[in-house]
Specification:
- The chain has three domains: about 35-205, ANL, N-terminal domain (Rossmann fold, 3-Layer(aba) Sandwich), CATH 3.40.50; about 215-430 and about 565-575, ANL, N-terminal domain (Rossmann fold), CATH 3.40.50.12780; about 440-540, GMP Synthetase, Chain A, domain 3, CATH 3.30.300.30.
- The chain starts with 18 loop residues before the first helix and ends with a strand.
- The longest helix has 17 residues, at about 40-60.
- The protein has 17 helices and 30 strands.
- The chain is globular and about 70 Å long.
- The strands form seven sheets. Strands 2-1-11-10-12-13-30-14-15-16 form a ten-stranded mixed sheet, sandwiched between helices. Strands 4-3-5-6-7 form a five-stranded parallel sheet.
- By secondary structure, it is of the alpha/beta class.
- Keywords: Ligase, Magnesium.
- This is 4-coumarate--CoA ligase.
- It is an enzyme of class 6 (ligase).
Length: about 575
């Protein structure tokens, strides 16, 4: 057997980019992208991506160069998930909710060669580029080329520099020879877990990992041929949890909308017969907003903080099926999925919702997932009570953090990747998160490191001590709550003052929604902040949940030959993304 050779016929590097030429060949005349009045087929999308890739090469973009993009869910954002790596480059999608300083930090750290900016974010990009240019005066930063993405449906004429997206597509050559992928370990995308610190953590995905994650999620979620997918999840979140590539793999329709507003979402579901969408739990409130009814099931994948069982129950009653999962940027999206068991369908709705709030079992792209004692690395008992750290291993785990050896050494231990999240394993093998040892606050699907907000608070001239914890919020799921101690003799340290100070130094979603002035921050004998005490205090300060009137009636119909409740769409939740 040793004489058998690896040949071009029996070995091709795995890459999600390969889904696009297949979509062109198999689904060529079927719709690929819908955005307002704009319509593309898969053959058109394939040609447009090849044209853009050739234009990138003409601009001097080469292997492993980073191409950044600041844009909402528009056709250009979707196309770049293929065109940029087709040119041999690495795509970096930037969170549009960051402030200019954070955007500049990402551009600096990634050493981006080209920066695409949607017309809606020209002001933000301009401010970021000015910050970057100022840093470059000391020889520490390079300002990238800039290209504006005008609106594909209703062009505005807004420009920033001389390059424009559609012009680059138009002048590209669809028949040009593009670089061949030789190594599936090559980087395909770069995603930042945080852009607000001096050393942001850039997570690098490989072609192999992205391919396996895409295939795994399609199988775990049971996505069939020709789905109609509504882009409510930002594509800058783990590359749309790999569905940017997954829709090409299944010949689906990408329905793009700029903003995840209730009317836009429900209009799109009705008009285009949407079958699938992804969202953070905060979007559940939008889905339940108003007196809307579903003509057919809509499968929904949700991510962020684990949604409460009561919320999952309401979503099911409104016509959505919920499958809960867990993921993180470093795992190329999903890592655990609460795979549904047929016998659970016979349980009461409340019990089903409780089961679906668990994070589940490892997805197929992982070799293994476990909960271990972080000191001994021994597996905890499967009793649903013994806690430990969730650890993962498999080809879908990131290549590593870009230019951050210390973080890589801390995150990888032997054959395991340490998530920093604390959980338990139930007797049936399903994992459930109990806490986050890294004190990450998940607000509206955005990860907020409490330490970053604390560092800003300590910059306040009147604050002597500070701690930040998650506070429950009826709309955002969680929001930061700050506890501060004023310096002796300091004046003006109050909630309004502290919030105003934070707004000047961090992105808006990171600003504490509540500030409490304490005499002393509670600490244990080792001097560590007792955040469990502060979380308990914060929970009492949380705004009350609004309980809207139940407008959606539960209909009776026949599902799979059985009479029961209204057919519900399937929601898969990825916690922590």
């Amino acid at each position: 057997m040793d004489k058998l050779q690896k040949r071009p016929a029996n070995y091709v590097p795995l890459s999600p980019i390969g889904f696009l030429p297949r979509a062109n060949a198999v689904y060529g005349d079927r719709p690929s992208v819908i955005y307002g009045r704009v319509r593309f087929t898969w053959s058109q999308t394939y040609a447009r991506c090849r044209r853009l890739a050739s234009s990138l090469l003409a601009l001097g973009i080469r292997h492993n160069d980073v191409v950044s993009v600041l844009a909402p869910n528009v056709p250009a954002m979707y196309e770049m998930h293929f065109a940029v790596p087709m040119a041999g480059a690495v795509l970096n999608t930037i969170n549009t909710r960051l402030d200019a300083k954070a955007v500049a930090g990402i551009l600096r750290h990634s050493e981006a060669k080209l920066f695409f900016v949607d017309y809606q974010y020209v002001r933000l990009a301009s401010d970021a580029l000015q910050i970057l240019a100022a840093a470059g005066e000391g020889g520490r930063a390079h300002v990238p080329l800039v290209a504006v993405i005008d609106d594909a449906d209703t062009p505005t004429g807004v420009r920033l520099g001389e390059l424009e997206y559609e012009a680059l597509v138009s002048r590209g050559d669809a028949c040009a020879e593009l670089p061949r992928l030789d190594d599936e370990w090559d980087a395909v995308t770069l995603n930042y877990t945080s852009g607000t610190t001096s050393a942001p953590k850039g997570v690098v995905y490989s072609h192999r990992g992205a391919y396996l994650s895409t295939m795994s999620l399609l199988m775990s979620w049971g996505v069939g041929n020709e789905p109609v997918y509504l882009w409510t999840l930002p594509m800058f979140h783990c590359n749309g949890w790999t569905f940017t590539w997954g829709m090409a793999a299944r010949g689906g329709v990408n329905v793009c909308i700029r903003d995840a507003r209730a009317d836009d979402i429900h209009r799109a579901i009705s008009r285009h017969a949407v079958t699938h969408l992804c969202c953070a739990p905060v979007v559940f409130n939008i889905l339940l907003d108003g007196n809307h009814s579903l003509a057919a099931p809509v499968h929904v994948l949700t991510g962020g903080a684990p949604p409460p069982a009561a919320m999952l129950e309401r979503v099911e009653r409104a016509g959505f099926r919920v499958t809960h999962a867990y993921g993180l940027t470093e795992a190329t999206g999903p890592a655990l999925a609460c795979e549904w068991r047929e016998q659970w369908d016979r349980l009461p709705l409340t019990d089903r919702a409780s089961l679906k709030s668990r994070q589940g079992v490892s997805v197929l792209s992982l070799a293994d997932a476990d909960v271990k004692d972080a000191r001994t690395m021994a597996s905890v008992a499967r009793d649903g009570k013994s806690v430990g750290e969730i650890v993962l291993r498999g080809s879908s785990i990131m290549k590593g953090y870009l230019n951050n050896d210390r973080a890589n050494e801390e995150s990888f231990r032997g054959e395991w990747f340490l998530t920093g999240d604390v959980g338990v394993v139930h007797p049936d093998g399903y994992i459930e998160i109990k806490d986050r040892s890294k004190d990450v606050i998940i607000s509206g699907g955005e990860n907020i490191c409490s330490k970053e907000v604390e560092e800003v608070l300590f910059q306040h001239p009147g604050i002597a001590d500070a701690a930040v914890v998650a506070m429950p919020h009826p709309h955002w799921g969680e929001t930061p709550c700050a506890f501060v101690v004023a310096k002796d003799g300091a004046a003006g340290v109050c909630e309004d003052d502290v919030i105003a100070f934070c707004r000047k130094h961090v992105s808006r979603f990171m600003v504490p929604k509540k500030v409490v002035v304490y005499d002393v921050i509670p600490r244990n004998g080792n001097g560590k902040v007792e955040k469990n005490v502060l979380r308990a205090a914060a929970s009492k300060l949380a705004p009350p949940a609004a309980v809207p009137a139940q407008k959606t009636k539960v209909k009776t119909t026949t599902v799979g030959g059985r009479r029961g409740e209204h057919p519900v769409a399937h929601v898969m939740a990825i916690s922590r993304l």
